[in-house]
Amino acid sequence: MKSAIALALLIGMLLPLQALINASLGKQTTGPLFASLASFVVGGVVLAVWWLASKPSLDLAALGRVPWWAWTGGLIGAVYVAAATMLIPRMGAAALICLVVFGQVAGSLLLDHFGVLHARQPIDGLRVFGALLVIAGALLVVRPWQQA
């Protein structure tokens, strides 16, 4: 469990760096959409090599039985990467990530509560309190009451 926590923290630390790198690439090339596409192409190549190195088996019939919505994860990832690439120059890494984390907490609570694609985990007072702390932390970092 400790290594899983460490990996999750490392990934969390790398996400703002990814957005900053993509924004920089966008400034140096044709814009944030190209930078987002480049990020996905490079990531796709890395994942393809990693997957092939794992000596996978491929069941084409199983791919045909997958529901349409199971393919939408890439769409969500593309929207996140493109939006982060466009937003990070305007709001900075800390504000972007705080707002994204707040959105993740709120969305996760709803998905858990209704048991979307996994076992139901109802919202309780402690989880709501935790979400309120995330909101408070995000507001303290973003400070929407101050002008830029």
Automatic annotation (TrEMBL):
<protein>
    <submittedName>
        <fullName>DMT family transporter</fullName>
    </submittedName>
</protein>
<feature type="transmembrane region" description="Helical">
    <location>
        <begin position="33"/>
        <end position="54"/>
    </location>
</feature>
<dbReference type="InterPro" id="IPR006750">
    <property type="entry name" value="YdcZ"/>
</dbReference>
<dbReference type="InterPro" id="IPR037185">
    <property type="entry name" value="EmrE-like"/>
</dbReference>
<keyword id="KW-1133">Transmembrane helix</keyword>
<dbReference type="Pfam" id="PF04657">
    <property type="entry name" value="DMT_YdcZ"/>
</dbReference>
<keyword id="KW-0472">Membrane</keyword>
<keyword id="KW-0812">Transmembrane</keyword>
<feature type="transmembrane region" description="Helical">
    <location>
        <begin position="126"/>
        <end position="145"/>
    </location>
</feature>
<feature type="transmembrane region" description="Helical">
    <location>
        <begin position="94"/>
        <end position="114"/>
    </location>
</feature>
<feature type="transmembrane region" description="Helical">
    <location>
        <begin position="66"/>
        <end position="88"/>
    </location>
</feature>
